[in-house]
Amino acid sequence: MPTEAASVPAQAVSGNGRTVCVTGAGGFIASWLVKRLLQKGYTVRGTVRNPADPKNDHLRALDGAADRLVLLRADLLDPESLVAAFSGCEGIFHAASPVTDDPEKMIEPAILGTRYVMTAAADTGINRVVFTSSIGTVYMNPYRDPSKPVDDTCWSDLEYCKMTQNWYCYAKTVAEQGAWEVARERGLDLVVVNPVLVLGPLLQPTVNASTDHVMKYLTGSAKTYVNAAQAYVHVKDVAEAHVRVYEAADAHGRYICAESTLHRGELCRILTKLFPEYPIPTKCKDEVNPPVIGYKFTNQRLKDLGMDFVPVLQCLYETVKSLQEKGMLPVLPTNDQDQPMITPTITSPATIP
Ligand SMILES: NC(=O)c1ccc[n+]([C@@H]2O[C@H](COP(=O)([O-])OP(=O)(O)OC[C@H]3O[C@@H](n4cnc5c(N)ncnc54)[C@H](OP(=O)(O)O)[C@@H]3O)[C@@H](O)[C@H]2O)c1
């Protein structure tokens, strides 16, 4: 039977001998985070709501998992289960959260659950908590000047979130504010990552909400695109950002994790170039107003920690390929004349006409 050290690549031992916990380990982002932590030599406790559920099997198949990954049952609304999972760990990555705009499903686990996580972390003597927040806690503010880059000092306006019934942004904002409050009260070291919409290959066996953002344009279910813009980031970069802010001793505050912003029309045009065989919408639902200009988010704080970001074009390509490989999206025949003009080796969005 291999020893723990034997399963860790020699050049990647920053986590060797260190035990951390990842909440919601089976989710889209958390699965990549667990993979990255195992690559770096960490011993990982992953919390899931049902360790026996085959939907978590992909975690057990990760390199290093046999020796250094334990899956534990925990629910965000069950503080005792969190304390049991965190005991003996040096750090927590709190990624678990519903991802929905249904207030019934979202508000309690996100807000109360994050408080329970923070309290359990303080009670168990955790050194640092990395919380997976969201850009939704940052940009939802009608008074923000759209020409100014959005940075870590910006906060969403709760009244505006409520008025627009954006319960996901509302709950994540209150959850993040609550996390900072408990951190201050209990003297807990908290660092926050605020990703924009996350895409890239899936490790888990089901389609998550952010992947569906692209999927709906490929299946024909969306006949038009909305007049809106969105920022994107690759899931591997999100996982890497979590590890970087955990390992950098002087990391503090909030880290916006974003690559670039596209109008939905640009997104559809890129998808059409890459995968012309799918029925991707060509028309905007709003034929009256000019295209909405999206916010630009600065990722400078993560660049300062040495990060580079996968270009959005590559990210979209890998997302669709992954959906095909996992059988979630049918592979359609391509007509030679329709072959994409661009290939995934082209890495700059500027190459898209
Ligand atoms: N994907 C994005 O574009 C994006 C962008 C910004 C921020 N985020 C944040 O990133 C985190 C992960 O998102 P994701 O996209 O990876 O979502 P996901 O694939 O849906 O994963 C969410 C995870 O949360 C767990 N969970 C939900 N409710 C729970 C509860 N009451 N107790 C314990 N676990 C619970 C789920 O566990 P089960 O498997 O048991 O359901 C699941 O593993 C979330 O905090 C989300 O707000 C995501």
Q: Overview of this structure, please?
A:
A 7-stranded parallel beta sheet has the order 3-2-1-4-5-6-9, with helices on both faces. A 3-stranded mixed beta sheet has the order 7-8-10. The N and C termini lie far apart (55 Å). Helix 4 (79-86) packs across helix 5 and helix 5 runs parallel beside helix 7. The protein has 353 residues and is α/β, with parallel strands linked by helices. The longest helix has 21 residues, at 103-123. Helix 1 (28-39) links the parallel strand 1 (19-23) and strand 2. The chain contains 12 helices and 10 strands. It has a single domain, classed as Rossmann fold (3-Layer(aba) Sandwich).
Q: Which band does the percent of strand residues land in? A: 5-15%
Distance between the termini: 55 Å
Radius of gyration: 20 Å
Mean pLDDT over all positions: 92
pLDDT < 50 runs, ≥5 residues: 1-6, 338-353
Q: What is the chains' assembly state?
A: single chain
CATH architecture: 3-Layer(aba) Sandwich
What's the number of structural domains?
A: 1
The helix content, as a percent range, equals 25-40%
How is this fold's topology laid out?
Elements: E1 19-23, H1 28-39, E2 43-48, H2 57-60, H3 65-68, E3 69-73, H4 79-86, E4 91-94, H5 103-123, E5 128-132, H6 158-163, H7 167-186, E6 189-195, E7 197-199, H8 209-215, E8 229-234, H9 235-247, E9 253-257, E10 260-263, H10 264-274, H11 300-303, H12 312-325
Parallel strand pairs: 1-2, 1-4, 2-3, 4-5, 5-6, 6-9, 7-8
Antiparallel strand pairs: 8-10
The structure holds NADP nicotinamide-adenine-dinucleotide phosphate.
